[in-house]
TrEMBL record:
Co-factor(s): Mg(2+)
Protein name (Swiss-Prot/TrEMBL): HPr kinase/phosphorylase
Gene designation per UniProt: hprK
Family recorded in the similarity comment: Belongs to the HPrK/P family.
SUPFAM superfamilies, alphabetized: HprK N-terminal domain-like, PEP carboxykinase-like
Organism of derivation: Paenibacillus apiarius
Reaction catalyzed: [HPr protein]-O-phospho-L-serine + phosphate + H(+) = [HPr protein]-L-serine + diphosphate; [HPr protein]-L-serine + ATP = [HPr protein]-O-phospho-L-serine + ADP + H(+)
Length: 312
């Protein structure tokens, strides 16, 4: 289901002044894009994106003032519509009476801000992106290891929380345990955080619930983190062939984003915290252009080729 934001919520968040159309504050905003209606002021409405928040600045109003009173009212009647969430005038500029009258008639919220157009545009875009971003809640643990967001998944009781505890003891930071709320931004990045109720808490079987910030300090936690890698813990299966070189890179899809997936088999004697640390460092090296598995494969191919030449 698509997310929506009421205009009234944006008015409160961005400290906007309501000038007209107060009855329309319950209108819904469905997209995070903004629109500056310069062409519409000039009379071109062929591709007018009515569903966007309309931002009117000094440029648009300066041109609008050159029109005749009849043309002003005609343009405003074409401009305002039922699909439009609201109109915002920036810089505290004086609003034309024609726009005030039509907004009041059509019950389109007419708002004003003292901020510059570019600053207000950035603030509203950030607000709408957070509110309208696709979200999902996933069972797992999210930790920040060497600056890399690692989402640890796996079946219940496999050791996710215990591994996170060991990572925290080794100087890394906990973001969320048990339930991870994930938000996808417009550039297809995933950001995870903990629900308010269980923030900073970690459940360890046999001990119970512990507060990581109280035990280990503020440096052991963070409120949100971009998810870069998914670590899947699974019980060791004797008949399963696990990747021993790391050439085949798996991915998993969360919402609409593909994330690198590393499957780690669990059995007694394996130090999962160290393995996850190495996975984080290896991910950083790959982002810097170094791939140990690929270099090994290339060297192996060269060695085999040289041996074949000597054999011939």
């Amino acid at each position: 289901m698509a997310k929506k934001v009421k205009v009234a919520e944006m008015v409160e968040q961005c400290h906007l002044e309501v000038l007209a159309g107060e009855q329309g504050l319950k209108r819904l905003i469905t997209v995070d894009d903004l629109h500056r209606p310069g062409l519409e002021m000039a009379g071109y409405f062929e591709y007018h994106p009515k569903e966007r928040v309309q931002l009117i600045g000094k440029t648009e109003l300066s041109f609008f003032e050159t029109l005749s009173p009849e043309a002003k009212r005609e343009r405003m009647q074409l401009f305002c519509s039922e699909e439009m969430p609201c109109i915002i005038v920036t810089r505290g500029l004086e609003v034309p009476q024609e726009l005030m009258d039509v907004c009041q008639e059509q019950q389109v919220p007419l708002l004003r801000s003292q901020m510059a157009t570019t600053i207000l545009s950035s603030r509203i875009t950030n607000f709408l992106e957070k509110k309208l971003a696709p979200t999902a809640t996933i069972h797992g643990v999210l930790v920040d290891v060497y600056g890399v967001g690692m989402l640890i998944s796996g079946g219940s009781g496999i050791g996710k929380s215990e591994t996170a505890l060991e990572l925290v003891k080794r100087g890394h930071r906990l973001v969320a345990d048990d339930a991870v709320e994930i938000r996808q931004t417009s550039d297809f990045q995933l950001h995870g955080s903990a629900p308010e109720l269980i923030r900073h808490l970690l459940e360890i079987r046999g001990i119970g619930i512990i507060n990581v910030m109280t035990l280990f300090g503020a440096g052991a936690i963070r409120n949100n983190k971009r998810i870069s890698v998914v670590i899947k813990l699974e019980n060791w299966q004797q008949d399963k062939q696990y990747d021993r070189l790391g050439i085949d890179e798996e991915t998993t899809r969360i919402i609409d984003t593909d994330v690198p997936l590393v499957t780690i088999p669990v059995r007694p004697g394996r130090n999962l915290a160290v393995i996850i640390e190495v996975a984080a460092m290896n991910y950083r090296l790959k982002r810097m252009g170094y791939n140990a598995a690929l270099q090994f494969t290339n060297k192996l191919t060269e060695t085999i080729a040289e041996d074949m030449e000597d054999f011939d």
